[in-house]
Structure formats: C-alpha cells, structure tokens
Write a structure and sequence with these properties.
single chain; 81 residues; mainly beta; six-stranded antiparallel beta sheet; 6 strands; globular; DUF951 domain-containing protein; DUF951
Length: 81
C-alpha cells in the first residue's frame, strides 16, 4: 500500500472541488482527521484521514501541481533503500 506524503501547509486538489467552484485546499491540520481550508472561500472542513487519502489527487510542489502518488517526502534522498 502506498503511503501518501503531505503535511500542514501543503496545497492539494481533491477528486471533487468545493461547491464554491474552487478546488484548491490548504492542509491546516493532520492526524486522524484532516482539516482543510478551501482557498476559494476560506471555508474549513474536517475530513477523516481515510476519506482524505481516497479523495486527494494532486499536491503543490513549488509552482506546479503533481499527482500525489509522485510526491515524495522532502528528505527521501537521505533515506534511500
Ligand atoms: Zn470554497
């Protein structure tokens, strides 16, 4: 099973956007539940971590959005296997 790497402050897109029309979310809190803020209207939502991992699609790396499955932790190069 793939592990997903994300942390507080990351910007992600989900399978479905917010009803306001935006589909950019900022991760405010991680844990058993994930707290997300819609970047279109600043509304915040809580989502179970399992639901979040099913719905998350892309994550912002620098200026571009990349598929989360291709996103590696920042220190990956130090922990090669
Ligand atoms: Zn919104």
């Amino acid at each position: 099973m793939n592990r997903l790497y994300y942390e507080e402050g990351d910007v992600v897109t989900l399978k479905k956007g917010h009803p306001c029309g935006e589909n950019l979310w900022k991760i405010l809190r991680t844990g058993v539940d994930i707290k997300l803020a819609c970047m279109g209207c600043d509304r915040t939502i809580w989502m179970a971590r399992m639901d979040f991992e099913k719905r998350v699609r892309k994550i912002k790396e620098g200026e571009k959005m990349v598929a989360i499955v291709h996103h590696l932790p920042k220190d990956a190069s130090n922990e090669g296997e």
